[in-house]
Design goal:
6-stranded mixed sheet; alpha+beta; 10 helices; 6-stranded antiparallel barrel
């Protein structure tokens, strides 16, 4: 990365801390971000699966949506039931365009009574907030929380580590979210993440980010984890990455995200692209996302073609790589719905060579979310 490239990139409040830890920095979503630390991607991945990994995700967009009725207004741009969202809970949802395509996927919750707290993907945040502002003009005020950082602590030991600092988080379960004091500052904490592991996402004032980061790293169970392992962890967990597995042509039905479309919203049909989405729910979509295990050869990367048992190209890999837990290639791909059944034999074309693959259940590695305190 040249000096010119670096100068054009934004930094997070933790950039200097990453460099001090020996991170290899790369451009990502307009920021300079750590892709790995000296222990390496494979070791970071396995450490998170076995202990607790600490991620800087401050490039993501955090905002408060306020207004007379921000929950009902938000339903005009997403297919989820937010009017019924109770304080202390958050939901995964998708921001939709008029054709039912996904503008971005996001988390939105009620950590307190101060409107709706929303977290969107870093590469999409400027467009996301513009879409929300354009569509909900006069109904909600968007306060972008540029003065806050976002950390993620993930893994089987993450809860014990975090609760030692913030005991009030002990009774939280998966998808709970709360405003609470911790580390001598104000936090917005959700019990969620992007690895399939138990853990917390922690919004902190930017001025406190380095101090909180260093306090967490003082625990021998915690190691800093970069974007490389974050990607392989989310892939094992079967979780989509916007701009790869999701984009403005992909509907939530095609992407296997129908859980984000609440029953009452399906009946009301009052969200963007409802005609397409309701039709796909009834009749089935033209393509579906599947999980593939690559049975031989090198891992299939994004863009690799997928062929049926007769060698006819039927789809494309949208995310792919090596699974450190399964010790082999795994991938997400779109294929015709008649090929979605678990056990269906397929081929992935890697460097011009067909390699055997098969459809397997999602996720590749079981989630370990805590659903009961």
């Amino acid at each position: 990365m040249s000096a010119t490239d670096t100068a054009a990139l934004k930094t997070t409040p933790l950039t200097e801390a990453h460099i001090a830890l020996g991170a290899r920095m790369v451009p990502f979503a307009g920021y300079t971000m750590p892709v790995q630390y000296p222990m390496g991607v494979l070791a970071e991945h396995l450490w998170t699966r076995e202990h607790a990994g600490l991620f800087d995700v401050s490039h993501m967009g955090q905002a408060r949506l306020r207004g007379v009725s921000p929950l009902s207004a938000f339903e005009e741009v997403v297919p989820g039931d937010f009017i019924g969202l109770t304080p202390g809970k958050q939901k995964y949802s998708v921001l939709l365009n008029k054709k039912g395509g996904i503008v971005d996927d996001l988390m939105a919750g009620r950590p307190d009574d101060d409107g709706l707290f929303v977290v969107v993907n870093g590469a999409c945040k400027d467009n996301d907030f513009k879409v929300i502002d354009d569509e909900l003009a006069g109904q909600v005020d968007i306060q972008r929380l540029e003065d806050r950082a976002l950390l993620a602590l993930q893994g089987p030991e993450a809860a014990a580590v975090f609760q030692a600092h913030v005991p009030a988080a002990a009774d939280m379960v998966f998808m709970d979210i709360r405003s609470m004091p911790g580390f001598g500052t104000d936090l917005i904490v959700s019990r969620s993440g992007y690895t399939g592991e138990d853990g917390y996402e922690i919004s902190v004032p930017a001025s406190e980010a380095v101090r909180v980061w260093n306090l967490l790293l003082e625990d021998e169970r915690v190691r800093p984890i970069g974007l490389g392992a974050r990607d392989s962890l989310r892939l094992e967990a079967g979780l989509p990455l916007y701009g790869h597995d999701l984009d403005e042509t992909v509907s939530p039905v095609e992407a296997g995200l129908t859980f984000a479309i609440n029953k009452n919203r399906r009946e009301q049909r009052d969200f963007p692209g409802a005609a397409r989405i309701v039709k796909e729910l009834a009749d089935g979509p033209a393509r579906v996302k599947v999980c593939l295990k690559v049975l031989e050869g090198a891992p299939a990367r994004e863009g690799a073609e997928v062929a049926d048992a007769n060698g006819v190209v039927v789809g494309v890999v949208t995310s792919g790589g090596y699974s450190p837990v399964l010790k082999g290639g795994i991938a997400l791909a779109f294929v015709p719905p008649e090929l979605k059944a678990v056990g269906t034999p397929l081929k992935v074309i890697v460097r011009g060579k067909p390699q055997s693959a098969e459809v397997v259940p999602s996720p590749f590695v079981a989630h370990r979310y805590v659903r009961k305190a």
